[in-house]
Design a protein that fits this description.
six-stranded mixed beta sheet, 35% helix, alpha/beta
């Protein structure tokens, strides 16, 4: 059984062209132009197994939030089919609500003028939690996200970062089998981000929680997810494990060598010295020409090496390269 199944899912919105200036504007008032269909999601398909942690990546306007809204039942698709936890979201919203947790970074599920604790009390009743069970879960979440001192404060009094920590805890209160997260770390400081990432990893591994995450913070993607679904302009570009994404699109590696020699030197085809300092060389390796192993072997053979650091470019650079390739009309599939 799949946790999330999406088959040829599409969503278009009807809109009218903007009115023309001058006399043409008057004509458009008397005879409005025909509405046109604007596609937001165009026939995407994927499946997510229980316990998977998947990043749903795309530039602004790619269709990520529209897809999540269809998967939660907020929007009804124009065409296609989807199942989440075995339910069709737009037909079985009430049954689905007990199985999923949702966090939209810019939308609140907490009651604005009530204390945070009152919102948790109401959510516990909505989900039918026993009092003892609710207290235990809330205590653990309050410790994880450092919100214990916020529970007595009104939501209206919280900063964005404080509110988001409470929102995420609220989404986890009923221990959902599937988490749908849309930009969940917007406004969080480094400590809160680290706590969220660690907790989501623990949930997935210990409880088998499935996670579908959209984020522009590549740190979220790298630390939480092990697979990436990439879309652009409503269409599926790529669906790959993160490791394969790195392997297939990693064109360059950086190697820093610390040596006994004051002025180290190393020359091989495909290897460029990008920085040379006393006792230190920084190399850029074109892996289409030379391998990291070749560079390391050459360094060990000709230099007295004290330390060796091998770095990958950030995931963000790889994703940008994929988007550039898509806009230039290059292949959307990775090399075999």
């Amino acid at each position: 059984m799949t946790a999330i199944l999406v088959e040829q899912l599409s969503k278009s919105f009807r809109t009218r062209p903007p009115p023309a200036p001058g006399l043409a504007r008057l004509r458009s008032v008397l005879r409005p132009p025909r509405a046109i269909e604007v596609p937001a999601v165009a026939g995407i398909s994927f499946a997510i197994a229980p316990g998977e942690r998947v990043a749903f990546i795309g530039p602004n306007g790619a269709g990520k939030s529209t897809t999540l809204k269809m998967l939660t039942g907020i929007l009804r698709p124009t065409a296609g089919h989807a199942e989440v936890a075995g339910f069709v979201p737009w037909r079985q919203r009430l049954q689905l609500a007990r199985r999923i947790g949702i966090v939209f970074g810019q939308r609140s599920q907490l009651w604005y003028h009530l204390p945070v604790a009152s919102s948790f009390e109401l959510l516990g009743r909505i989900y039918g939690l026993e009092r003892g069970q609710q207290r235990t879960r809330l205590a653990r979440l309050a410790e994880t996200f450092a919100i214990g001192d916020l529970l007595s404060r009104r939501v209206a009094e919280l900063s964005l970062g404080q509110r988001l920590r409470c929102e995420i805890a609220a989404a986890l209160l009923h221990a959902p089998a599937i988490l749908l997260l849309d930009e969940p770390t917007i406004g969080l400081d480094l400590t809160a981000k680290a706590a969220l990432r660690d907790h989501l990893n623990l949930l997935s591994r210990a409880d088998g929680t499935t996670i579908l995450l959209t984020s522009h913070d590549t740190g979220d993607i790298e630390r939480i997810c092990d697979r990436a679904i990439i879309i652009d302009r409503g269409r599926l570009l790529m669906d790959l494990p993160l490791e394969r994404l790195r392997r297939d699109f990693l064109k360059q590696r950086t190697v820093t060598i610390v040596t006994e020699q004051e002025r180290p030197a190393l020359g091989l085809p495909g290897i460029t010295v990008t920085a040379a300092e006393p006792h230190r060389l920084t190399l850029a390796i074109d892996i289409a020409v030379a391998s990291v192993e070749q560079a390391v072997s050459a360094a060990l053979a000709s230099l007295t090496v004290r330390d060796l650091i091998i770095e990958n470019p950030p995931l963000e650079d790889i994703i940008h390269a994929i988007y550039r390739g898509a806009k230039e009309g290059s292949h959307a599939e990775p090399p075999a």
